[in-house]
Amino acid sequence: MSLHRIKLTLPTDLREYVARRVAQGGYVNAGEYMRQLIRSDATDQQDRRLGNRLAADETRRGGTPAGDSR
Q1: b/e per residue 39-64 (b: at least 16 CB within 10 A)
Q2: CA 25 → CA 12, 18, 20, 22, 35, distances in Å?
Q3: Which end of the chain has fewer beta carbons closer than 10 Å to its terminal beta carbon, N or C?
Q4: Cα(46)–Cα(53) distance, integer angstroms
Q5: CA angle (14 as vertex; 13, 15 as ends), nearest 5
Q6: CA–CA separation, 57 vs 20, rounded Å?
Q7: Is the distance from CB of 64 to CB of 70 less than 8 angstroms?
């Protein structure tokens, strides 16, 4: 896997928030925290697309989409 550097500029409040999250543990540094946020967002997007596809398939079959209480 090749790595590419991205420069990110944050306002003071967000920079301090990231520093607190890193200090709380679970992250080696700010870069690891940001990578985990991006991974989490990518997973959320994938799950949302899958959910939308499943709901569309169910609707095409004439059913009620999962989670719809109609």
Answers
A1: eeeeeeeeeeeeeeeebeeeeeeeee
A2: 20, 11, 9, 5, 15
A3: N
A4: 11
A5: 95
A6: 44
A7: yes
Token pair of 6, please? 């991205």
How confident is the prediction for the chain on average, in pLDDT? 89
Residue with tokens 């709901």: 55
Q: Looking at the chain, how many residues does it have?
A: 70
Cα 2 from Cα 8, distance rounded (Å): 19
pLDDT for residue 38 is more than 60: yes
Give the span between the Cα atoms of 22 and 5, in whole angstroms: 19
